[in-house]
Structures are given as C-alpha cells and as structure tokens.
Amino acid sequence: MKALRFDKLGAIIAALALGGAFIAPFATFRANRIVAGEVKSVADALPAGWSAVLLGIVVCAVIVALVRSPAYLRLAAAFVALAALALGIGVAATHLTPEANTYARVSPASGFWIMLFAFGLLAADALTRLRPAPFVRIVVLAVVLAFASAILLAGAWDGLSILKEYASRVDTFWAEGRKHVTLALGSLVAATLVGIPLGILCHRVTRLRDGLLGVLNAIQTIPSIALFGILIAPLGWIALHVPGAAAIGIRGIGVAPAFVALFLYSLLPVVANTVVGLAGVPRDANDAARGIGMTDWQRLVGIEFPLAFPVILTGIRIVLVQNIGLATIAALIGGGGFGVFVFQGVGQTAMDLVLLGAVPTVVLAFGAAIVLDAVIEMATPNTRQAEAA
Predict the structure, then answer these.
(1) What secondary structure, in 3-state letters, does the chain show?
(2) Which residues form the ABC transmembrane type-1 domain (predicted)?
(3) Do residues 88 and 224 both lie within one domain?
(4) What is the pLDDT at residue 366?
C-alpha cells in the first residue's frame, strides 16, 4: 500500500482552515450598527445541526488539502467548503438576529474570512494544477457568480448587516456603481485610443520613446490622491474661463478630475506594452512582408499589430484592474463610485458600510482579471501548444 504524502501548501491551508473553524470567531453580533460587537464561534453562531455539518465539511476539505490528492478532488472539496461557508453565514445571521428586530446586525468575523481565504487558496491551487482552457476558466467564474446571485435572490443573506446597509441604499448603490464602472471603463477606452498610437509612434521614433516613457513613469509615481488634488486647480480654471467647459461637465471637483487622473495613470501600461509588443515582432516576419511588397502601413496592420496584440492586451488588462481599484479614491473629490460607501463607513466607524463599497470593487477587479487573462491566452494560440511541447 502506498504511503500517504503530505502537501506543503495543503498544510498551510489546513492550518488556516482549522484555526478559522475552531479558534477564531465565525460571526459578530451587534445590537445595532454602531455598538461594539459580540463574537460567536461556529457552534454558537449556528444551530446545532448546521454547525456539525459545516465543521464536518471543513474537516473533510482539510484532509483532502493536507494529502497529495487529485486536482479535481481538491477543486471539488474547495467549492463544497466555500458553498457551505456562504450558506452558513446566512443561516448564522438568521439564527442570531432576534425575531422582528430590525436594529441588530450580524456580520462575518475573522474565522469566516480566514476559512474563505484558505479554501479560496485551495481552489486556486487546484485550478493551477488542472490548467483549464481559457473558456473553462470563464465558465467556472460564471458558475461561481451564478451561485452567489442565486443566494442573494433567494434572500439567504438578507440577515447580514452588509445586506441591511444595501437595502437602505439600493438606488444610491446602483447609481454609484454605474459611476464607478463608467470611470474605470471610460478612462480605459480613452487611454487605449490615445496610448496605442503613441506606442506605435514611440516604436517608430526612438528619440521620442525615452522622453515620453520617462514622463509617463513620473506620473505613475504621483500618489493617486495627490494627482486628484493637483488636477482640481487647472480644471477649475478651465471651467471658469473656457466657454462651454462647465456645460460638458468639466469642474474642479467631481468626475472630471477623477477621469483625467485615471486616464493619465492608464497611459503608461498601454504605451509601454504597445512598444514592447511591436519590438517583439520577429524580424523574419517583417522581412518577409517587405519581400512581398507590403507598405509600412500594411505591415503594421497585417503583421506587426496582430503579433503584438496579446502583449498590448496585457497592458489593457493591467489598466482595467488598476482603474477599478483607483476609481474608489474618486469619491474623495466628489467623483462618486463605490468609494462613497467606503469613506462614509470609515467616517461612521461602520465596517459593514465599508464592505458595501469594497466587496463589489474586489469582485469587479477579480472578474475582470480572470476574463482578460483568458482572452489574452485565447489571443495567443501557440502558447498552450508550446507549453505542451
């Protein structure tokens, strides 16, 4: 009989999961949104049957993680444990909240987050070992989001404090969400339309390349909140002195400085990756194109740009994930977005309100990264064959 072998990463995952399940608190109960909370263990936060089931699933998943087991089994164990956690925290909210009490608040405690991280790490490790095709990764993401949406629509999480904060701000939440997405995507589109031509120009004109990339590098070193502040004065002046500027939304505070700052931050990855992508085009491909009489424009459109596209797309992926996060800071200058809830929560010492802004931001960034990584791999068809060889 073959001896069991322990997995090194699995040992770390097991330690985290067991600590989260048996040592750290699972949920926090507060009589209202501003008073100090009372932490509850898994056994105290859940009905007896539920706590036994959840702890049993955690222990089984830990055993799978701890030993060298097939990647499919590790992935299944991680997803079952994550689903149990998701359902369990909703049950805990219902169990801990007194009947007809609208003031009490129940939120996940450190043990929940530790277990969520541990089993998320187990799922990521299993997916890395399986190396699924890009389309499969997108399907997995869609299934996870569909499961979370089903829980939300079924009302299983309605007792959680973050959902109670959401319920009192439904219209505001979606309005700020639209602003957040508009800022992130709008600045990305503008940077792509400007950055790719600049990158092509830098590739063609070497003397321009060093100077322009140096300026863009300098912009990247400016802290985001400082850049937002720097833009207030010039945009305010434009709004006052340029006819029609204020009518189209240009002001010293609000969306305009946030959009311009995100646009400036976005330029370096787009320009630099365009230069690197074009520089990486094989010389033989260009020589062959010249040999059949292709013009510079035909070579750029038909040969260089398609070969450089995956690298350029990598820069766009960096920008999108970066901008989704940076758009949160826009709330400090009246730009809106999910940062409104984050900073309101910080000011009111209301962690659940902070999470109302932070969680959708993280989900958007994580989802965008997975989708664009898959698209990049699909745009590089020879990668998987090369790895297999």
Answers:
(1) CCCCCECHHHHHHHHHHHHHHHCCCCEEEECCCCCCCEEECHHHHCCHHHHHHHHHHHHHHHHHHHECCCHHHHHHHHHHHHHHHHHHHHHHHHHHCCCCCCCCEEEECHHHHHHHHHHHHHHHHHHHHHCCCHHHHHHHHHHHHHHHHHHHHHCCCCCEHHHHHHHCCHHHHHHHHHHHHHHHHHHHHHHHHHHHHHHHHHHHCHHHHHHHHHHHHHHHCCCHHHHHHHHHHHHHHHHHHCCCCHHHCCCCCCHHHHHHHHHHHHHHHHHHHHHHHHHCCCHHHHHHHHHCCCCHHHHHHHHHHHHHHHHHHHHHHHHHHHHHHHHHHHHHHCCCCCHHHHHHHHHHCCHHHHHHHHHHHHHHHHHHHHHHHHHHHHCCCHHHHHHHC
(2) 177-372
(3) no
(4) 92
Residue-wise pLDDT tens digits, 84-137: 999 999 999 999 988 877 788 899 999 999 999 999 999 999 999 998 888 898
* 214 in the same domain as 336: yes
Are residues 368 and 223 part of one domain? yes
Q: Is 81 domain-assigned?
A: yes
| Tally of structural domains, the chain | 2
Same domain (yes/no): 25, 80:
yes
Q: 346 and 279 share a domain?
A: yes
Question: Domain check: are 71 and 15 in the same one?
Answer: yes
Domain edge (last residue) among 76, 103, 131: 131
Residue 143 lies in a domain: no
Reported as a single tens digit per residue, the pLDDT across 324-379 is 998 898 888 878 889 999 988 888 777 888 889 999 999 999 999 999 999 888 88
